[in-house]
Amino acid sequence: MPKQGMSATFTVKLKPIHGLANQGGFRYQQWLISQRIVATGYVKSASLTTAHPVVSQRQIWLSHLYSLPLKHNAWIAALTFGDKSHFSTQQWNLIQTNGIAHLVAISGLHLGVVALLTLLIGRCLLWLVSRTMALSQAYNYRSLMLAMVVGVTWYYAYLAGFSLPTVRAWLMLLLLSVLILLQRVVNPAHFVLLSLGGFLLVQPMSVLSLSFWLSFGAITAIGFILWRWPSHNHNALSKQTQISAIVTPVLIAVKAMCILQLMLSLLMLPLVASQFAFISFHSPIVNLIAIPIVTFCLVPLCLLAALIMLIDRSAAGVVFEWIDWLLESCLNALPDSQNSALASVQLPGIPVIVWAWSLAAIVLWCMPISLRKKLCSSLLVLPLLSYALVSQNSKWQLHVLDVGQGSAYVLETQGKAIVYDVGNRFPSGFNMADAVLLPFLQHQGLEHIDWLIISHFDSDHAGSLANVLQGIKVIHFASNQDICRRGWQLNWQALHIEALWPPAESEGRGNDNSCVLRISDGQHAVLLTGDISGDVEKRLVKTDRKLLKADVLIAAHHGSNTSSSQDFIDAVKPQFAVFSQGFLNRWDFPRQPVVTRFVMSDVTLYSTASSGQISFVFDPERKQIETDRFRQNMLPTWYNRYLWH
């Protein structure tokens, strides 16, 4: 595996940044821009040489940590050095479902612990010096303490790899230190705005990063909570409990922590749910227990082990073993709450504006206003509750998903779905089921697939089949190797589906034996063609010309010149044709002669490479077809078109 210090020579093929664009999917192109990445590509050839003697201290410590026989190296590396590259998919799922991602990302919490420990150690050293010798009053020792805190936290940010959350937290600490030195009093709201402006000057593209909004959202929420429920007025608590002065501050601190954590979870819920389409009901309780453990136990122990590594690695290994044992005890408690049926819920895709209205309702309920006004503010939650209802209109939709060089289509109506093809799976493990299809189905609120149909078993059409079957319930299955043959018919949700190809005697192998389906509501029709060639198109024109008429045609074989013959286009007479193809693919699909044939036939052309997901909405009552394209209509932001043309 390549490591820091190695020399490498690569021959690469680069292209402008581009990502799959689908509802519910990860916005890769947005993330690339937020990380200031301007090109992507793949390695054609590479050569590595031996490690260079100049290796960073962080890499030396990481290599030593991963060489230790610990069960939870990945967790320790994340807590100590901010390295999250060794987390498995199961571990990431555990982190997400329990809402503890902020605990394993070195940010304000960890940097604050380091700053506090540095300040305490500095003051202790200063006190010891003052006990042995007279200190000059000509120096401002507070400035010395602040400089020490800023320097130590900067080095800790370096060990954490200068990740965006770490840099953001360090800049805020630096700003606070400067304000203290200048003896400037700034209220919390102004401090947050100054931090926000300063960070945007340093990292302007970070505004596209989700961590940016989560961080400043959490800071704003904490400020609101401390304003609404100040923790300094506790005379009533002391009188009611009448306990010792030692226990009372502990109860006050516990009460304040509970209020802070529960209200923070409630105020952050709309932002988290809008981004992850997921609500964890036990997350506030998990964080209420985990935050003190991480803050007062794990992080200090990790820092202690890192410092000891400078002196004695074997002694540091002993401390890491303590940390490993403590992590084992903590992690064993998480799956119980995760596996509970009531612990969490997946949500369909809900517009951000709906979550914004819900957040406004939560804030108004927290405000010191009359009960009547609070009850009126509850009306703002009605748009959110409406998404629990299933649409009963007669419209149906065909979603052409953007899966790169491959195919995946979803037929949807009244909360039911048919999936035709599932996209590719790659040797790295990346697959279109987990990246595109399953997130899209969740976004649409679809809990199962009525029919899963595979046109043929080439990898770009069926590579992710196993992942789909594992990720969602499939009631019925069909393919070109079983029932999806010429003459097979299916009446589903007021739609008539008929297989036009392959013949019954076919072996069901190869492109020319793809399952060709015609889907119709009596007014409109769609033709799904798989990867058939011009020879099959010619036979279909000869035997089933009347059945080929369709409003929407999925161009065969992604726009290859061996398909989409002129006679076939004339027989189908489509209003729209779609090319499901990869961005700047190596086969140069769709080929220019194919595009020319469609243009000459006055057909409107769409491509998933340029538009992302393409959705056709059919309305039999109004006899009209609406089209929605992800980059142009669903999310027409500038970064979705950045460097495309």
From TrEMBL:
Predominant subcellular localization, coarse grouping: membrane
Keyword terms: Cell membrane, Membrane, Transmembrane, Transmembrane helix
Domain Metallo-beta-lactamase stretches: 405-583
One matching Pfam family: DUF4131
Domain of life: Bacteria
UniProt keyword Cell membrane, yes or no: yes
Bilayer-crossing regions: 100-129, 141-161, 167-186, 207-230, 250-273, 285-311, 352-371
Membrane topology note: Multi-pass membrane protein
Subcellular location: Cell membrane
Gene3D superfamilies: Ribonuclease Z/Hydroxyacylglutathione hydrolase-like (3.60.15.10)
Record-linked NCBIfam families: ComEC_N-term, ComEC_Rec2
Protein name stated in the entry: DNA internalization-related competence protein ComEC/Rec2
Lineage: Bacteria, Pseudomonadati, Pseudomonadota, Gammaproteobacteria, Alteromonadales
